[in-house]
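[stage:ingest] chain + small molecule (protoporphyrin IX containing FE)
[stage:ingest] validated
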Amino acid sequence: MKGIVFTAFIEYVEDSFGDPVAEHMISGSDLETDGAYTSVGTYDHGEIVQMIIQLGKLTGRDVPSLVKDFGHHLFGTLVAGYPDVVRHVGDSFGLVATIDNHIHVEVRKLYPDADLPSFSHTFNGPNELRLLYESERGLADLAEGLLLGCFQHFEEEVALEREDLSDGAGTRVAFTMKRVIN
Ligand code: HEM
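[stage:predict] done
[stage:export] tokens:
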């Protein structure tokens, strides 16, 4: 997993729960790096899983809600880190519709070893978009948080529904997004 995800995660924990919680989380996890990540590095996905489980224990929060929250935060970090990738996009549906054929394609060019999910989408009219997430890593909670971060970024009100098509494994999940028109 790319270092930008790790550095954004540590930043999310420090900002949301404070430095002592971040330090306890790191010291309570068995990490090769001792929590010293760089945004250009590549690290074992298992390290972030361990840290998030520790964070759950330290905060009493359930892991899926923490992953979702982190996804929300991560969207802002990614957009700030790669402004060119989203420059020509005018709204959240425009962005979501280009994840698979543009955004993650550019990510793959930058990092040939990136572990990226697969997405496909269908528009049901201009105000409803269905997105199918597929990844063996089962990070649908992260995807959901990223989508929420995306709606906030464009200051849009969008109702999001989620249907797990993988018996709760989070590896194949359909998201339906409907613009809320006031
Ligand atoms: C709402 C929009 C987006 C969604 C739903 C999304 C979803 C995801 C998910 C769920 C992952 C985790 C890997 C997996 O599940 O297999 C991921 C990884 C990643 N995405 Fe996206 N993404 C979005 C936008 C972006 C943007 C704007 C960028 C920046 C250009 C980006 C760059 C990355 C990077 C760098 C990774 C990590 C790859 C790795 O660790 O090897 N994504 N994305």
